[in-house]
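Comment thread on ticket #2218

A.B. wrote:
> Attaching the input chain for the structure job we discussed in standup.
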Amino acid sequence: MNFRFFANAALVMSIALGASACKEESKVQTPPEYATITVKEDSVTVKNSFPATIGGNSDAEIRSKVSGFIVKINISEGDMVKKGDVLFEVDHEIYQAEYNTALAQLHVAEAKVETSKLTAQNKANLAKKGIISEYEKKLAENSLAQSVAELEQARAMLDNARTNLDYTYIKSPSDGVVGNIPVSIGNLVSPSTAEPLTIVSDISKVYANFSIDEKFMLFYTEKGGVNDILKFMPNVELKLATGEIYTEKGVIETISGVMDTKTGSAKMSAMFKNPKQLLRSGNTGNVLIPKIIKNALLIPQTATYELQDKKFVYVLNDSNVTVNKQIEVEPLTINQNYIVTKGLEAGDRVVIEGVGSSVKNNMKITPITKEQSEAKLKAATKK
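C.D. wrote:
> Ran it. Output below, let me know if you need it in another format.
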């Protein structure tokens, strides 16, 4: 028996099997690398935004208290006026004539009183001497009383005529800025005119009026209760229509005690000082209310994918295999990060790379850090 042949054959087979094993091992692929993060708790501040309309400290509607044609307009839209400034003038002629008539009637009444006084005094002397009866004396006294009453009536009519004449000069009730002026010279105005001649807004300070939802209301109600909720409301900011943040901080001064059942919201009002008079009544903006969330869990938006309006992430198990999990998040974001309110816990490892494209559920991966992933991308770009 040729033992050397069998020995050589065994050696050849051993080498062949070893080569085959090495070839099979070379086919085994290392799990792909993807960046992950470990979720940690942190305290964050988000700013809730609420659309608001701006109103002045007082918005006085300017109306005419008498009827007549406008003969003069002393202001222009946007003018700053002082209390007592004459804004409009209504035709004075009729009211001047009424005043002159009332003044004349007053003089007549005054003269009549003087005459009645003399007559009553004379009658009293005659009655005392028995020349006339007490009846005639009483008639003279009654005539004097009637003259005095007519004098008071004449004075009242004069005061009314003077007031109406003064009303033809329509004045500003306060300091402020003039709004829209829908009338012109020659227009007929009266106390029943539906639209005001203009609005004078005191804008030394302004109020941003807005509404908050029930969830936000409960957040602060739980802190201070209904009675003390304003004590726990933080200072707020105002985002202007230009996108800029107003320099002055605001203070929430009023809040409605009842939720609107139709809208599910409550009305609030925040006061802002307006020293440079930048804000005007009728402006719009957004009130930003900061809200501190303790023990918040932050994840990048890129770590999520959506399915049927629900958000999911991939969490790694102990074997580095992906497991999809549904999460819930705050409506507001911080620097392109979601604040997770449900679905994750501190210490969970979340995939933040390839989500929604190459990463799938129940997939084994090799976790790397975000920095390592960025370094790989940078190196690949150079090549």
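A.B. wrote:
> Thanks. Noting for the ticket: Confidence is low (pLDDT under 50) at residues 1-19.
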